[in-house]
Structure formats: structure tokens, C-alpha cells
């Protein structure tokens, strides 16, 4: 085959000889190259899309992992708070335990026959018990019903596990599961905070009650005494006819220790006219005062703070008295009342 190229100008024309087979081969080659290029492009496009998808998936997984990590951290933080609340509860429990034991007590009815041990002398203090629990003032009694079982019995092992980096067996690695566990923890935290509040309130109430009980007169001011003259109207032993006996007479030997029957402030420690002789008066607050008369001597000064069981003086017969005894008065809002029920009452009553 001959191809003649004729230029438009008058320049010389060119002529080629082209073999048809060669032309066909050339065209075939071009087609092949184009097809290969198209296929390659398609392949790269597909590959790029796949890579993009993989990248997106990896990004999503990373995001998921990050969320999961954040969730776990939040969970540990919540667990930490739960643990702190539990520690606060244990601290409050210790407070309460401490508060409900070791109440000083005075001689009770059983002490009527008990004398000061020989050799101890007149200045011995009363025996005190430091293991006595105040009845009715248990931790359970001051907690709301819905709180106490949780605080007293059930300990939060979930929070402990999480704090130690252990995941509960019920929890899988999904975010939903983490969120569920955290929600559970948050509920427990709220419950614990309620418990802490309840315990703190209980402690404050208990402290107020214990303060009242520590001050209110209770028990005998002398060991081994007997009531030689009760409270109420009596025929005067001094020839004054009928009169009202404002206190109770507790017969005991000279020099027997006299103890404060409740915490308070000494408001009088001196000779008192009107037949009282050497006399101590204690203001216990809450409207209570106690008076101890006919003392041989006093052992306190005005303004002194005393606790129940503190030695305040010794039995004598000073003032208008027929023999050694303690004249003991209990005044409620300034009015003398029968001290006998107070002698037999325990500090917790
Ligand atoms: Zn008297």
C-alpha cells in the first residue's frame, strides 16, 4: 500500500509505502495500550476507594477505642469517688463506734452494797467501764432502712475492682457495656452519698444525745450509801414542825468521796447559809442543777468544768445536820424534784 502526503503548498509531496499487516499490528498495539491504561486506572480507582474505606474504618475504630478509653477513665474516676465515699462511711462508723462506748458510769443499785475498796482511801474515783455500749444507740438504729443494709453489710466490690484496674466479668469490651457499668456505679455513688449524709446526720444527732446524757444527772453521788430520809414533806428533826425536804439524805461515813452525777459547771463551792453547810452546786445545762450539802470539804472551785464521776467533795455533817450524810438535790428549771429516780437511772436513760 502506498500513502502519498500532498502538502497544500507547492512544495514536494511525500509518499510512503505502508504494509497493511504492519498497520493492523500498530493499531492493535494502540488498542492494547489504551485498554491496559483503562484497566490500570480502574484498578487504582478501586484500590484508592478500598484504602479510603479502610482508613475511615481505622479512624472509626480509633474513635471507638478513644471513647472506650474515656469511658473507662470516667468509670475509674467514679469508682474512685465510690471508694472515697466508702472510706468516709468507715470513718463515720468509727466515730459512731467511738461515741457509743466508754460512757462513764456512777454506782448503780448493785453498788449499794459495794464499799470503797480498803486501802484506796477516801479519794478513789468510781469504777468506769470503757466497753459499755449505749443501748439503743447502734449504728443501724440511726440509719434509714434503705441505707443501712448497704452500708453495714454490702461492700462495693465493683468499685474496688475498677480501682484496681479489673473489669467486672459481666462487662464486655463494648462501649454500651462500659456505659451500663458506669451508670450502675453512678447510681451506687448517689446511694453512697445519701448514706454519708445519713451517717453524718446520725452522728450529729448521736453527739447531741450523748452530750445531753453526759450532762443529765444519773446515778448515785456516793458509793454504798443508804437513803436515810427521802424527798418530800417530813417532820423536822430539829423541832421546826412539818417542812418540805427538798432533797434526799444519803447516809455514809465521814470522808466518803462525793462524785458529780453529770457533766457541768460548778456554780457554787462554799459554805451555804440555811443549814446546808459546805455545799457544791453544779449546773449541768438542759435545765438541770444538782446540789451536794453538809460536805466535810469540797474539792472543786466555782467555774470549774466537771464530768460525771469527778470527785467534788467528801461526806460530812456541816451545817444543820444530825450526823454524816450527803443531802443531795436535783433541780429542774429551778424546782427541786425527787432525786430518787435519778439515782437509779442509768446515763443512757
Ligand atoms: Zn437533807
TrEMBL record:
Task: Read off the Pfam families from this record.
Answer: Peptidase_M23
What are the entry keywords? Membrane, Signal, Transmembrane, Transmembrane helix
Query: Which Gene3D superfamilies does this entry report, sorted A to Z?
Result: Glucose Permease (Domain IIA) (2.70.70.10)
One GO MF annotation is: metalloendopeptidase activity
Q: Where are the transmembrane segments?
A: 16-44
InterPro entries from the UniProt entry: Cell_wall_metabolism_enzyme, Dup_hybrid_motif, M23ase_b-sheet_dom
Task: List the SUPFAM superfamilies hit by this protein, alphabetically.
Answer: Duplicated hybrid motif (SSF51261)
Q: Is this entry keyworded NAD?
A: no
Q: In this protein, which residues make up the domain named M23ase beta-sheet core?
A: 243-339
Using the UniProt annotation, give all residue ranges assigned to the region (Disordered): 95-133
Report the superkingdom from the record: Bacteria
Q: Which PANTHER family match?
A: L-ALA--D-GLU ENDOPEPTIDASE, PEPTIDASE-RELATED
Query: How is this protein named in the record?
Result: M23ase beta-sheet core domain-containing protein
Amino acid at each position: 500500500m502506498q500513502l502519498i502526503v500532498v502538502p497544500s503548498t507547492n512544495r514536494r509531496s511525500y509518499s510512503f509505502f505502508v504494509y497493511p499487516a504492519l498497520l493492523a499490528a500498530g493499531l492493535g498495539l494502540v488498542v492494547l495500550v489504551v485498554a491496559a491504561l483503562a484497566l490500570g486506572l480502574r484498578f487504582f480507582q478501586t484500590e484508592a476507594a478500598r484504602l479510603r474505606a479502610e482508613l475511615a474504618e481505622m479512624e472509626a475504630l480509633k474513635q471507638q477505642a478513644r471513647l472506650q478509653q474515656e469511658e473507662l477513665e470516667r468509670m475509674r474516676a467514679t469508682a474512685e469517688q465510690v471508694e472515697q465515699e466508702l472510706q468516709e462511711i468507715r470513718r463515720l462508723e468509727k466515730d459512731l463506734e467511738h461515741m457509743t462506748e466508754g460512757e462513764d458510769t456512777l454506782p448503780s443499785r448493785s453498788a449499794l452494797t459495794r464499799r470503797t475498796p480498803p486501802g484506796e482511801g477516801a479519794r478513789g474515783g468510781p469504777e468506769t467501764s470503757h466497753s459499755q455500749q449505749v443501748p439503743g444507740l447502734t449504728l443501724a438504729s440511726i440509719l434509714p432502712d434503705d441505707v443501712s443494709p448497704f452500708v453495714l453489710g454490702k461492700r462495693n466490690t465493683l468499685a474496688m475492682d475498677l480501682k484496681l484496674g479489673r473489669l467486672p466479668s459481666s462487662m464486655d469490651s463494648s462501649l454500651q457495656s462500659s456505659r451500663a457499668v458506669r451508670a450502675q456505679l453512678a447510681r451506687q455513688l448517689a446511694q453512697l452519698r445519701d448514706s454519708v449524709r445519713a451517717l453524718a446526720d446520725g452522728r450529729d444527732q448521736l453527739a447531741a444525745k450523748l452530750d445531753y446524757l453526759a450532762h443529765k444527772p444519773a446515778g448515785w453521788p456516793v458509793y454504798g450509801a443508804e437513803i436515810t430520809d427521802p424527798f418530800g414533806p417530813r417532820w423536822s428533826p430539829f423541832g421546826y414542825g412539818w417542812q418540805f425536804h427538798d432533797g434526799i439524805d444519803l447516809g455514809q461515813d465521814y470522808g466518803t468521796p462525793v462524785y458529780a452525777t453529770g457533766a457541768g459547771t460548778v456554780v457554787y463551792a462554799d459554805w451555804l447559809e440555811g443549814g446546808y453547810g459546805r455545799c457544791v452546786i453544779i449546773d449541768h445545762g438542759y435545765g438541770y442543777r444538782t446540789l451536794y450539802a453538809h460536805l466535810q470539804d469540797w474539792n472543786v472551785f466555782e467555774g470549774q468544768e466537771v464530768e460525771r464521776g469527778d470527785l467534788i467533795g467528801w461526806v460530812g455533817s456541816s451545817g444543820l445536820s444530825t450526823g454524816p450524810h450527803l443531802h443531795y438535790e436535783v433541780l429542774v428549771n429551778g424546782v427541786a424534784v425527787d432525786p430518787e429516780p435519778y439515782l437509779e437511772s442509768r446515763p443512757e436513760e
